Amino acid sequence: MSRDAPPGAWVRIFLPFALGYYLSYLLRTVNAVISPALTDELGLSAAQLGLLTSMYFLAFGLAQIPVGIALDRYGPRRVESALLLVTALGSVLFALGDSMASLGLARALIGMGVSACLMGALKGLALWYPPERQSSMTGFIMASGAMGALTASAPLELMMPLVGWRGVFWGIAVVAVLAAYTLVRSLPREERAGGQADLGAVLRSVGAIFVAPAFLRFAGSSLFFVGGFMALQSLWAVPWLMEVEGLDLAATARILLLLNFGMLIGQLSIGVFGVRLVRRGVEPLRMLHFGYAGLLLVQAAIVFGVGPVVVKWFLLGALSAVNSQAYLASASQFPREMFGRVSTSINLMAFAGAFVVQWGIGLVLDLLRANEWTMPAALRFAFAVLLVLQFISFLPLLPRHWLGRWRRRVRAQSPGADQE
After folding, report:
1. Residue pLDDT, tens place only, 121-135
2. Fewest 10 Å CB contacts: which of 32, 54, 150, 282?
3. Closest of 53, 125, 143 to residue 355, by C-alpha
4. In whole angstroms, what is the distance from residue 217 CA to residue 327 CA?
5. Which secondary structure element, helix H or strand E, spans residue 254, and what is its range?
6. Could you tell me if 90 and 107 are in contact, meaning their C-beta atoms sit under 8 angstroms apart?
7. What is the 3-state secondary structure (H, E, C) of 93-140?
8. Domains of the chain by residue range
9. DSSP code of 416?
10. What pLDDT score does 411 carry?
């Protein structure tokens, strides 16, 4: 199949995928603003709230391997449009839910339903756009997700008194059906490129991905950088801003808006400059090096209370845009026909990380609070643990010669180096 974008690709391909990923990110982060209402109505503990919200990530993660296989065999048009109807069903059930069990099931269906929105878009871009435009188009797709996150901050907080959290999910169900219809009507009809392959061989190829050194190199950073950011953005940023920074819900929603606006600016920057960067030799992996180093510094400033709150959270959002390059950097290590399986395998690690971090922070908070820690102190401890895990996972991404230079520099500065 030609890698040149077909005529009208922006309207026929980009916009349908952008709508799907907008909806996916809106649903990923919506619980951050509605969490106080959910907690009051259902009487949830921190661990229960973390578990309920992370059911999205659990179902999303479990769906990644089947979704990756389906995308490679049947293409994004069929797979993503069908799953968006599951999203609509889950949204309706969430709007009707009245217990932890019913809301958890609905949240899981929502996570399963949007599980192909990003990977389907990346697969479609790989099918219908030339390689040099991949980073830019990925940046623009991710920017549409940032728009969803923006919607799920101050705008949603303003809507809550008017329609309530149940009304929000009725509206989301309608948008999900519209997105599914748009994908079916607009996307080119793709060939079933891998449809005749033996399923056993396909499953074995997936297993081979998870033990490949090229995959393992990116697995940890996907867990704790990509997954960690999703856990903070979709839930734990709100308790941090309210308990540690002392903001009310309205001010917290404005900081979330700023965080998500920063993410939008970062993604648009990658979209605008991505082609130029690639042509100048700045590949996705190099973008990860600089972006993740910046994220570590900004999060350290947040944990230790250094610098203005608005600046730190804006920069956190802007630098998080580099997470999108993890999919391209890892998939580039494998044959093109495995793009769907590799990218969804990386996404599985990201959403597993989001589930573990989101629920894990809730467990840590409940444990420390039971031992008479204050909530601000418990939050600082939990965020600091995440920061350490991110630093450890960053090391395998660094080139070996960088680490070699660092070791030689340390030896040269050590006592007695001049006598050797």
Report:
1. 988 888 888 777 777
2. 282
3. 53
4. 12
5. helix 249-279
6. yes
7. HHHHCCCHHHHHHHHHHHHHHCCCHHHHHHHHHHHHCCHHHHHHHHHH
8. 9-186+200-399
9. T
10. 61
CA angle 157, 94, 369 (to 5 degrees): 65
Please determine, for residue 23, whether its predicted confidence score (pLDDT) is greater than 80. yes
Distance CA 325, CA 189 (A): 27
Distance CA 176, CA 90 (A): 10
Phi-psi bin for 281: left (phi > 0), alpha (psi -120 to 50), beta?
A: left
- E strand or H helix that includes residue 394: helix 375-394
Dihedral angle of Cα 137, 270, 151, 54, to the nearest 10 degrees:
90
What are residue 402's phi and psi, to 5 degrees? -65, -45
Whether residue 227 contacts residue 351, with contact meaning beta carbons closer than 8 Å, is answered with: yes
* CA distance readout (Å), 286 to 142, 326, 399: 18, 10, 10
DSSP secondary structure string, 73-88? HH-HHHHHHHHHHHHH
**Taking 50 as the threshold, does the pLDDT of residue 1 lie above it?**
no
3-state SS assignment for residue 4: coil
Does 9-186+200-399 carry CATH code 3.30.70.270?
no
CA 132, 138, 139, 144 torsion: positive or negative? Answer: positive
Tokens of 228: 């960690």
Are 353 and 228 within 8 A, CB to CB?
yes
Amino acid of residue 268: L
DSSP code of residue 280: T
Which amino acid is residue 55, in one-letter code?
Answer: M
**Residue pLDDT, tens place only, 58-116:** 898 889 889 888 888 888 999 999 999 999 999 999 999 888 889 999 999 999 999 99
Q: Does position 220 have pLDDT exceeding 90, yes or no?
A: yes
**DSSP letter, residue 12:** I
